[in-house]
Amino acid sequence: MNTACFAAWIEEIARTVHAEKDRLTRLDAAIGDADHGANLDRGFTAVSRVLAAKQPETTGAMLTMVGSTLIRNVGGASGPLYGMAFRQMGRVLGDTPDVSIAQLCTALEAGLAGIQKLGAATEGDKTLVDALAPAIQALAQSVQDGVKPEEAISAAAAAALAGAEATIPMLAHKGRASYLGPRSVGHEDPGAASTALIFAALHAVTTR
Amino acid sequence: MVGIVLISHSGPLAAEVAALAAQIGGQDVPLAAAGGTEDGGLGTSPSLVEAAIKHVDRGDGVILIPDLGSSVLTARLFVGPDVMIADVPFVEGTIAAVVSAGADMSLKNVLAAAMESRSFRKF
């Protein structure tokens, strides 16, 4: 993946987040404060604007820009969380011109570590970690098995989606939904749902 | 003197808690409210928090007091050797922190005093 490929991914995230804005907000209305869709849409709209004005020259600089722009513009918990993840990914990739699946996996692992440092969530807490961690595990397994990049990304997207759906019966231990206790059960976590969208967007651009 | 920054999802909530704490703890303590988004909506703004930290920093350190949710995550973005977060009840913790800062206590001691408010009983 080169900078053009990352730019296409980010544009696709912005497009799908905008298209799914109302669904994400509805999920958040059930167990949070009903702003996840609107917040992420505002963040990625700002990212698109920055990207259109001037495309960063390296893969690392691009993801760092995405992270910093999200932190400044989202306004909810997903701003610092996704922002930190993209910034950590950018730091790991640096000026790598053509990122392999193994390198993408390492960068995502750093992103997950950043999210966990900030939010202290682990798998099973009903947060975006429940979609992100299995996606990274699927990607790592694919790297180990030596499958084709498209197949690796397809497996990661499927794992993220399954991870998001698996949050439905969970009791929230972190984030705003944790204030609801048992009433958080029966709803998909909005952060896990948006993480699944981010991986679906990656899958969409790599199979074009 | 240690500076205090209140971070809330709501601009008016942070501003009113700051006003209350200033009245009880003294007008001399550098205290700033960073609530809501830049356009006045509900949420947290890292830019407002950053500006508030600069505003109250007198060189003796700054304590951040978040209310809940994204306020905590936004606060964590700014933690460093001279900027600490207090995991305390928003109103009681703020008053305890402002009173101790007003008594010229060190950053560590202001944080400790704020933390004591976690065990305050109302009756």
From TrEMBL, chain A:
<feature type="domain" description="DhaL">
    <location>
        <begin position="4"/>
        <end position="204"/>
    </location>
</feature>
<dbReference type="InterPro" id="IPR050861">
    <property type="entry name" value="Dihydroxyacetone_Kinase"/>
</dbReference>
<dbReference type="GO" id="GO:0005829">
    <property type="term" value="C:cytosol"/>
</dbReference>
<protein>
    <submittedName>
        <fullName>Dihydroxyacetone kinase DhaL subunit</fullName>
    </submittedName>
</protein>
<dbReference type="GO" id="GO:0019563">
    <property type="term" value="P:glycerol catabolic process"/>
</dbReference>
<dbReference type="InterPro" id="IPR004007">
    <property type="entry name" value="DhaL_dom"/>
</dbReference>
<dbReference type="Pfam" id="PF02734">
    <property type="entry name" value="Dak2"/>
</dbReference>
<keyword id="KW-0418">Kinase</keyword>
<dbReference type="InterPro" id="IPR012737">
    <property type="entry name" value="DhaK_L_YcgS"/>
</dbReference>
<keyword id="KW-0808">Transferase</keyword>
<dbReference type="GO" id="GO:0004371">
    <property type="term" value="F:glycerone kinase activity"/>
</dbReference>
<dbReference type="InterPro" id="IPR036117">
    <property type="entry name" value="DhaL_dom_sf"/>
</dbReference>
Automatic annotation (TrEMBL), chain B:
<keyword id="KW-0808">Transferase</keyword>
<feature type="domain" description="PTS EIIA type-4">
    <location>
        <begin position="1"/>
        <end position="123"/>
    </location>
</feature>
<dbReference type="GO" id="GO:0047324">
    <property type="term" value="F:phosphoenolpyruvate-glycerone phosphotransferase activity"/>
</dbReference>
<dbReference type="Pfam" id="PF03610">
    <property type="entry name" value="EIIA-man"/>
</dbReference>
<dbReference type="GO" id="GO:0016020">
    <property type="term" value="C:membrane"/>
</dbReference>
<dbReference type="GO" id="GO:0009401">
    <property type="term" value="P:phosphoenolpyruvate-dependent sugar phosphotransferase system"/>
</dbReference>
<protein>
    <submittedName>
        <fullName>PTS hybrid protein</fullName>
    </submittedName>
</protein>
<dbReference type="InterPro" id="IPR039643">
    <property type="entry name" value="DhaM"/>
</dbReference>
<dbReference type="GO" id="GO:0019563">
    <property type="term" value="P:glycerol catabolic process"/>
</dbReference>
<dbReference type="InterPro" id="IPR036662">
    <property type="entry name" value="PTS_EIIA_man-typ_sf"/>
</dbReference>
<dbReference type="InterPro" id="IPR004701">
    <property type="entry name" value="PTS_EIIA_man-typ"/>
</dbReference>
